[in-house]
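Exercise 7. Given the encoded structure of a 154-residue chain, write a plausible sequence.
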């Protein structure tokens, strides 16, 4: 059976709303990637060189800890990973999620939310970084309709 799981990280709620929309459209389960230490508005200030997100961007070895785990990842054939684009790539917590879960033999789709960046930089960065995994496609879900979503995932 082809079961889908949407795994998403949402710092401000935008990516969560898209995950819920997507889940309803394609009948997929949801899993929120929640950091142990929540991101504050100060942490998200990309103009501040001392902000948490800027520090994480500059040190690719940082892996923020995740609160919860997917206990039944082996039940899913499709994994859809959603996140906001930070500096043209995925937030470090997405790397934590990928490295903590066995996503081999899964079809992996990526969706992003962004004020101005497309999915390409993030998707290509993930494909390059995790070349052993089966990344199928990526999509920016800011303004996309139901039919486009169905055609993308199916």
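Solution.
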């Amino acid at each position: 059976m082809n079961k889908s799981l949407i795994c998403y990280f949402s710092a401000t709620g935008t990516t969560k709303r898209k995950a819920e929309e997507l889940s309803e459209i394609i009948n997929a389960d949801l899993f929120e990637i929640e950091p142990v230490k929540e991101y504050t508005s100060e942490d998200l200030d990309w103009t501040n060189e001392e902000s948490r997100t800027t520090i994480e961007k500059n040190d690719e070895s940082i892996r923020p800890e995740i609160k919860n785990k997917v206990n039944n990842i082996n039940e899913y054939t499709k994994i859809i990973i959603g996140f906001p684009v930070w500096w043209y790539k995925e937030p470090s917590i997405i790397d934590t999620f990928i490295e903590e879960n066995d996503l081999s033999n899964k079809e992996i789709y990526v969706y992003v939310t962004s004020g101005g960046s497309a999915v390409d930089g993030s998707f290509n960065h993930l494909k390059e970084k995790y070349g052993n995994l089966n990344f199928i496609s990526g999509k920016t879900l800011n303004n996309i309709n139901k039919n486009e979503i169905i055609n993308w995932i199916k």
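Remark. Helices lie at 14-26, 52-58, 92-100, 120-129, 146-153. Students should compare their own answers with the one above.
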